[in-house]
Amino acid sequence: MTVQINYKNIGSKNVKGNLVLFVDEKFSISSLKKHVSSSEYSFISDLLKTKDLKKKIITFDLNSEKKIILVSIKKNLSNSEAENLGAKFYDQFKDLKQSKYNLNSDTIPIELKNIIGCFLHGLKLKSYIFDKYKTKKNKINIQIIVTGKNKTSSKDQIKFRALEEGTFYTRDLVSEPGNILHPDEYAKRLNSLRKVGIRVNIYDEKKLKKLGMNTLLGVGQGSIRGSYLVTMEWNGLNNKSKPLAFVGKGVCFDTGGISLKPAKFMEDMTYDMAGSAVVVGLMKSLALRKAKINAVGVVGLVENMPGGNAQRPGDIVKSYSGKTVEILNTDAEGRLVLADALTYTEQKFKPKFIVDLATLTGAIIVSLGSEYAGLFSNDDKLSKQIINAGKNVEEKVWRMPLSKNYDKLIDSKNADMQNINYVGGAGSTTAAQFLQRFILNKTPWAHLDIAGMAFSKYGGALNSGGATGYGVRLLNKLIEDYYE
After folding, report:
1. Which residues contact 364 (CB under 8 A, 6 or more apart)?
2. DSSP string for residues in 108-163
3. Of 320, 325, 324, which Cα lies nearest the Cα of 344?
C-alpha cells in the first residue's frame, strides 16, 4: 500500500473523491458553508444530530462514490497529537475502495501552524508495511490532494519526507530476515548512502584485527559471515566543528553463541541489529534534509553464532581501548560490540557527545515494558535534552541509574572486567556500567537500551506492528531543538 500526497492550488469543490474537512471539538460546522454545497451542508447538519460526537472522526456517505469526513481538532492541538490523529485517520479509511481524498487545509484554524504537515506525517508513518516477501501484495494506492492556502511549507515538506524515508529505511533493515541481511550484505547496503552525500568507510576483519578490536571480532568469530565496523559521516557545516556521534549495535542475528538461547522466539533475534538501523536511518534523514550540523554514525555489524571457531565462556579478550574482558556469557554480546565502537568513535572523531543505541538487555523490558526506552548517561544536560525530545515526538525515555557501586558486580578476578553480573539483578544498569568504562575521555555520553521499543507485536500509535523505527525521530528532534 502506498500513500501519495499532492498539493494543488484549486478549490476543494473542484476535486473529486472523499472530502476531508476540519472542525472544532464541538463539531461546529458553520465555517464549512463556503467549502460544501448548500445541500451537502444541510445533509451534514441534519445527520450530526444522530452521530456520536465523542469520536474524533465522523463520516457521512453522500453517495456510493463520495464521503464527507469531519475531523475534530482542539484549540491547543500539539504536533504529536496531530500526528496521532493522522494515523487514526489512516486506520479508519485504509480499506475503502474509494481511496482518493481531498483534504481542505483552509478549514484548519490559522493559529494552529503545521497541523496539516503533522497530520499527514502521522498518516504516512502509520501506512508502512513490510510485504517484500509476500507474493500477493496490497496494491491499493491512497491519494491525498491538499487544497487551500493553509499548507505545509516546502521546507517542512522536505523535513517530513526525510524523516519518513529515514524511519522507513530503519524499519526495512530491522524487518529483513537474517539469511538476507547478514553482516556482509548490510555493509554493502550502507555504501548506498554515498548517493545522498554521506561519507562511508567500511572496516573489514583484516582492518579490525590491525586496529585491535577484539571484543567486536570475538562476537562474530563463530559465523561464516564477516564482521565489520562502518562509519558514516555527514558534514552539513563547512567548519571543522566537533560532530555529534551516534553508535549502534548491529548484531544481525543473535543465537546467543555457545551460551545458546532457547529456541522459542529466537526468530525475533533478527531485530538485534535495531540500534544500528536507527543510526543508519537517522544519518539518511539528516542528509536528505541537509541538516546544518556535522554528525557521524558508527555501527558494529556481526552475527553471533555457535560453531567450531565460536567464542567460549571463559575466554579473555583485549579491547580496542586496551582493557581486557573475561567472557562469562557469550549471549551478553552487544556490549562487546559497542565497547570497541564507543572507544573508536571517541578517539577518532572527538565528538561533542556520543549517543549509543542497542537492543541490549531483556532486563530493560522487565523494568519499563514497551512504553519507555532505558536512558543511562554520564551527563545531566544531555539526558534532559533527550528526555525533552522524546516527550515532543512521543518516543519516550526513562533515566535509569549509574553508580560506581555497581562496578564491583562486573569486576573480574582474571581480567579488568567481566561481561555479565553473575550475582544477578540490575541487568540493564550493569550492562550500561560496562559500556561507560569504554568512554575514556569523559565525553558526554548516553546509552539508550531500546530492547522493548524496537519491535512491536501489536503496533503502536504510528506503526502497525513489527519494526517501529523508534529512535530516528527522537534523535532528529534532539538535533533540531538543541544543536542546529
Report:
1. 373, 374, 400, 427, 428, 449, 451, 452
2. S-TTSTTHHHHHHHHHHHHT----TT-SS----EEEEEEESS-PPPHHHHHHHHHH
3. 320
Per-residue pLDDT tens over the stretch 291-311:
999 999 999 999 999 999 999
Residues 171 and 92 grouped into a single domain:
no
Instruction: Please name the residue that has the C-alpha cell 480499506.
Output: 95
> What torsion do the CA atoms of 160, 125, 275, 330 make, to the nearest 10 degrees?
-170
Q: Among 51, 19, 125, which residue's Cα sits nearest to residue 82?
A: 125
Helices (H) and strands (E) in the chain, counts: 13, 19
What's at 459, amino acid-wise? G
Both 166 and 124 in a single domain? no
Q: Which residue carries 545531566 as its cell?
A: 380
Strand partners, 66: 63
Q: Are the C-beta atoms of 312 and 327 separated by less than 8 Å?
A: yes
Could you tell me if 439 and 356 lie in one domain? yes
Catalytic residue among 88, 151, 159, 335: 335
- What is the pTM for the complete model shown? 0.96
- Tell me how many domains the chain contains: 2
Do residues 372 and 229 share a domain? yes
Q: Which residues contact 461 (CB under 8 A, 6 or more apart)?
A: 83, 84, 87, 122, 126, 394
Measured CA to CA, the distance from residue 223 to residue 310 in angstroms comes to 7
Determine the pLDDT at residue 185: 98
34 exposed, middle or buried (CB, 10 Å; 0-12, 13-18, 19+)? exposed
Q: Choosing from 66, 100, 189, 261, which is the catalytic residue?
A: 261
Q: The CATH number of the domain where 34 resides is what?
A: 3.40.220.10
Low-confidence ranges of the chain (pLDDT < 50): none
Mark whether 335 is an active-site residue.
Answer: yes
Contact yes or no for 215/227 (Cβ under 8 A): no
Q: Compute CA 134 distance to the chain's CA centroid, rounded to the nearest angstrom.
A: 24
Cβ-based neighbours of 298, under 8 Å, separated by 6 or more: 229, 230, 231, 232, 245, 246, 247, 248, 279, 341, 344, 345
Q: Which domain holds residue 208?
A: 160-482
CATH number at residue 401: 3.40.630.10
177 and 125 in a common domain? no
